[in-house]
Amino acid sequence: MKAIQIFLTLVMMASLFSCKPAEIAIDPTLEARAMPVKGRQGLQIGQVIRYGEFKTDKVRRGWTKSYDVPFVVRFRGAKEKLSFTQFGTDGQQAEVACISKFKSTEIMTVRDYFSVPIDIDNFFAGNINFGEDRPNWDFILYNPNGDFLRNQASAGYAQNGTKQIDIQAIRGLKGQSGWLKELTVYGHEFRYQGKVVGAVSTINNGKVWIDESLDAETKTVIAAVATGLLLRRDVEEAGVDVNQ
Q1: CA geometry: angle 86, 88, 92, nearest 5 deg
Q2: Using CA atoms, how far apart are residues 120 and 140, in angstroms rounded to an integer?
Q3: What does 59-99 look like in DSSP terms, one character per residue?
Q4: Distance CA 26, CA 29 (A)
Q5: Which secondary-structure segment (H or E) carries 221?
Q6: Cα-flanking dihedrals φ and ψ of residue 70, to 5°?
Q7: Mind listing the pLDDT tens digit for each residue in 29-83?
Q8: How many CB atoms lie within 10 A of CB 175?
Q9: What CA–CA distance (Å, rounded) separates 162 from 160?
């Protein structure tokens, strides 16, 4: 099954990239400029992600400092960990911790914590901490790369108890039509209060779009999740660690 999926993806990519660089098909209602990503490719040592007015400090793979956020404490057994400080507009900054490749014993806890379907076992999740006097945001994305052959969706959300930003997969490319549209997840879009307010493309070097009319905190949250998606490893590595 995996071989079939790889073959179909290669056929699609060959047909698309032979002519011009691929671009994801973002929702036409999104009012935002494209921000090319810098720092995604190359060495991971000292890696810093930048786009537009948004940037991180040096990305840490495997946590190098103590976290006492309840979410992080609960899932400290996850094998894949990365963290960074996300700097946003108007002086906003947040400590971001992302986790995946959970121990098999933690999967039910993840499902209960986020109320996701019981048949889902591949997650990318995290916490966005703006400081002690402000509520934390948790986020989760299940099936980050989708699963065409199993017909599983790639979706999720970020929430802080009073606000929620929904996340949906982007499966289409500009100029793409027919059966090719459903093969691969090329990025994700962010919806807030029924409106598309952001998007991230994870192909090539990556691009990010964030609606400039949003408040500074919401923009920083979207940036934090987008950065995490740009940094995450492939879906095969982000699933359950069955040997733990």
Answers
A1: 95
A2: 12
A3: -EES--S----HHHHHTTT-SEEEEEEEE-STT-EEEEEEE
A4: 9
A5: helix 216-231
A6: -50, -40
A7: 999 999 999 999 877 788 999 999 999 999 988 765 555 556 666 666 666 778 8
A8: 11
A9: 6
CB atoms within 10 A of CB 65: 7
Supply angle C-alpha 36, 42, 46, rounded to 5: 95
What is the spatial distance between Cα 108 and Cα 182, in angstroms, rounded to a whole number? Answer: 29
Nearest 5°: CA angle at 109, between 69 and 190? Answer: 70
- pLDDT tens digits along 217-244: 999 999 999 999 999 865 333 333 333 3
Residue 168 is encoded by which pair of tokens? 């949906």
Is the entire prediction scored with pTM above 0.85? Answer: no
Residue 114 is encoded by which pair of tokens?
């986020």
pLDDT(208) > 50: yes
Residue burial 230-242, b: 16+ Cβ < 10 Å; e: rest: bbbeebeebbbbe
